[in-house]
Amino acid sequence: MSSILVVGGAGYIGSHVVRAFLDRGDSVTVYDNLSSGCRENLFGEATFVQGDILDSAGLLGLARAGFDALIHLAAFKAAGESMVAPEKYSVNNICGTINILNAASEAGIPRIVFSSTAAVYGSPHRIPMDETHPTDPINYYGFTKLEIERLLGWYERLRGIRFAALRYFNAAGYDAAGRINGLERNPQNLLPLVMEVAIGVRPFLSIFGNDYDTPDGTGVRDYVHVSDLADGHVRAYDFLVSQNRSLTVNLGSEKGISVQSMVDVARRVTGKPIPVRIAARRPGDSAVIVASSGKAADVLGWKPKYSDCETLVASTWNVYRDLAN
Ligand code: UD1
Question: Which residues line ligand 1 (CB under 6 A)?
């Protein structure tokens, strides 16, 4: 049994990661300030410590309890907001991570699994995007994540902390067994917005452009189910233990889903009309973003099980349907 500290473990992705480690019998401690995470996502089997990553003394005190690994998911993640409030992203994402790295270093935590993002790549030069794709973020959020990857590299060189940087593509879906029901506050990603239209909280979905060079003209993304992402964290941890070397790897489904086809599947699954309006393209959006996850398959034996469009939509609807009017 391993002892895992999950920083940001009450959040949308974090709670699924906590569930995956608990499911195989590991001991889990969650550290979260509940700024976007929610209490409903905390499991009785996990120890919860409420705290902020800007509280370096609090972090260090907890880290000194001794852990086999720290999983770091605590960050702001709204790309658009990061362009108008960069200071907030600098402090929370970068300064907060420095506190985490210093606590891990001082307390002797030997491994870190880090939530990185496809946003480190910026606009695609080629599709699918593998890990050798140039990294040139087009939003400040992506820049903060890339800087953190570089910090991790230095703490490995100077302090011997092994790390796995997991570059998520578009996280979506909810635990297929229905054990996680805490909704994100102010969701900004496509599928939660589609669900908000389905339950009547929003009158329609704005489709940001239908004149892209894609089969139906709408943007294509690589949606990966959070339970598959969670499994990726467990495998990354096992890799760090067994291989004792660091890793930077994409986690994506390798399947492109368009906005229009997501809406079509959601109409069928929910039985709701889900009105849409075609709006202008959103600045910074690319036509198509799809991962190559060959490295995750080869190195981690990782293969998405839940990342088909139907399961993504149905597992999300399971959580939203109770709120429908
Ligand atoms: C966004 C972030 C990315 C981050 C990822 C996960 C940007 C530019 N990128 O990716 O950095 O890693 O979330 O948090 O913000 N769409 C609509 N109508 C909507 C909302 C979205 O048509 O109301 C479309 C978008 O144009 C896009 C697709 O749906 O084609 C997915 O959008 P979204 O969920 O916001 O994710 P990304 O922009 O791909």
Answer: 77, 79-80, 117-119, 139, 141-142, 170, 189-190, 193, 205-208, 219, 221, 259, 282, 284-285
Q: Domain limits of the chain?
A: 3-172+223-251, 190-222+254-323
pLDDT at 325: 61
Which whole number is the average pLDDT over 263-290? 96
* Residue nearest atom 18 in ligand 1 by C-alpha distance: 207
- What is the strand order of the sheet 162-168 is part of? 47-50, 27-32, 3-7, 69-72, 111-117, 162-168, 247-251
Question: pLDDT digit string (tens) for 124-174?
Answer: 999 999 999 999 999 999 999 999 999 999 999 999 999 999 999 999 999
The active-site residue out of 121, 141, 155, 320 is 141
Residue located nearest, by CA, to atom 9 of ligand 1: 79
290 pLDDT exceeds 70? yes
Looking at residue 186, what is its pLDDT? Answer: 86
220 Cα: distance to centroid of ligand 1 (angstroms)? 10
Indicate the burial class of 300 (C-beta count within 10 angstroms; 0-12, 13-18, 19 or more): buried
Is 141 catalytic? The answer is yes
Q: Say which CATH architecture domain 3-172+223-251 belongs to.
A: 3-Layer(aba) Sandwich (3.40)
Measured between alpha carbons, how far is residue 133 from residues 119, 127, 152, 249, 293 in Å? Answer: 12, 10, 19, 12, 13
Name the CATH superfamily for 190-222+254-323.
Answer: UDP-galactose 4-epimerase, domain 1 (3.90.25.10)
Q: What is the pTM of this model?
A: 0.97
